[in-house]
Write a structure and sequence with these properties.
Blueprint: H1 6-20, E1 37-40, E2 43-47, H2 60-73, H3 81-85, H4 88-101, E3 108-113, H5 116-128, E4 136-141, H6 146-159, E5 162-166, H7 172-179, E6 185-191, H8 203-212, E7 216-220, H9 235-239, E8 246-251, E9 261-266, H10 267-276, H11 278-281, H12 288-302, H13 304-323, E10 330-331, E11 338-344, H14 346-358, E12 361-362, E13 365-366, E14 376-381, H15 388-407
Helix pairs in contact: 2-12, 4-12, 5-6, 5-10, 12-13, 13-15
Amino acid sequence: MSNSFKALTLVNQAITRLEEGLLKRSLRINEKACDVDAVVGDRALKTFCSNDYLGLANHPALVTALSDGAQKYGVGSGASHLISGHSRAHELLENQLARFQSAHIPNARALFFSTGYMANLTAITGLIGLANKGEAHIYSAALNHASLIDGVRLASSQHQALVTIFDHLDLASLEKDLSKDTSSLKLIVIDGVFSMDGDLAPLNSLLQLANQYDALLMVDDAHGFGVLGEKGHGILEYLDLHSERLIYIGTLGKAAGVSGAFICAADSFIEWLIQKGRPYIYTTATSPAIAHAVSKSLDLIEGIEGKTRRKHLDELIKLWNEEMVFSCWQKASSSSAIQPVIIGSNAHALQAAKLLDAAGYWIPAIRPPTVPEGKARLRITFSANHTVDDVKELIQTLQKIESSMLVEGVSL
C-alpha cells in the first residue's frame, strides 16, 4: 500500500508553502490560568497579547459562579435552544444583556451564542434572509473581522445579496453608493473597535447614513463591550447612540472573561433570528453553567469593580501613548486596549517577537492574511491586571529591541 495519496501530498505541499512564506503558525501551551503571567514549557512569560482586557478571566468570583452554575444546572444543556436546551440561566442572562443595551436600542432583546463567530453568521445571514433573493445589499468595512467577512460571503451566496466593501476612514464613497441603492434591504456591517488597529468605527456618521438611506447598522463590539462606556456597556453607551436600526453584537470571552457572545436588537429582529437563524437553530445550547458565570461577570462589569478596572486600564493606555516612542516602527492611532506596533515584513515581525520572547514577553507576530501584506506587526494588548511598572518595562524593552534591530540593518 502506498504511504501517500493525493490529498496528503497536497496538504503537505500547502504547509511547506506556508513555512516558506513565514506564515505557518503554531500552538503554545500555557500551563497557568489566563492572566498577565503565563508559563510556557518551564519559562515564565509576561503576556501582552490576551483579550482579557479587564483581567476577569481568572477572577475568583467568576470561578465560584461557574462552579455554582454547574451545581445548579449541571454541565451540558442537552439540546438546541428550541428543543429543550434553553435553561433559566440562559433566559436570565439574555434579559440582563438586553438591559445593558436598552437605553440605546428600543424594545431591546438579546440572544446568547456559544461564540462570536456564530453570532455574526446568524445575524448577517438571518437579516439578509428578510429580503427576496437578489434584493439585499450588504456594505462591509474593509478591515472587518473574519467572522463578519465569512457571514457576508455566506449571505451573499445563500441569498444572492450584493456586496460592497468600503473604507471606514472614507465614508464619502459609501454615501455615494447608498444614495443610488434601490435595494429593499440594506445592511451596513462594521467592527466597533477594529481588532488589529485598535481604532473606533465612526458610528455616529454611519448611523446618520443608515437613517438617511434606510439601512440597518450592524456593529460587532467584540473589543468594546465591557471596556467602553461609563458602565462598560460598550460602544453604543460610549458614543451615546440610539436607534431601532442598530444590530449589536457583543463578545463575552474577552473583557467579560468567560465565553460566548450575543446579538441584541429590537425584539422583532431577534424573534426573526430565532425562527430563521440557522447557526442558532441547529446548534446545541451553551452550557447553562457558562451562562450563569457570564451573569456574574456582567455584575462585576457594571459595578464599582468594573469601573475601577476600566479606569486603571485607561491609565495604562495613556501611559503607553505618552511614553512609547519609536525611531522607525509605527504606532497606530488607538485609544483602545489594542495598541499595534507595525513593523512591516513577516521576517522582521517574527524576529521582534522572538527577541521579545527571549526577554520574557509573550507578544506574537501578526502576519497576513490577518493583516495586509507589508503590515506585519506586534499586536500589544493591555489588561487591567497589568501594572504601571509592567508597561514601563515593556516600553524600555521594545525600545532596546528596535535599536538592536536597526543596528543590524533591520528596518521598515
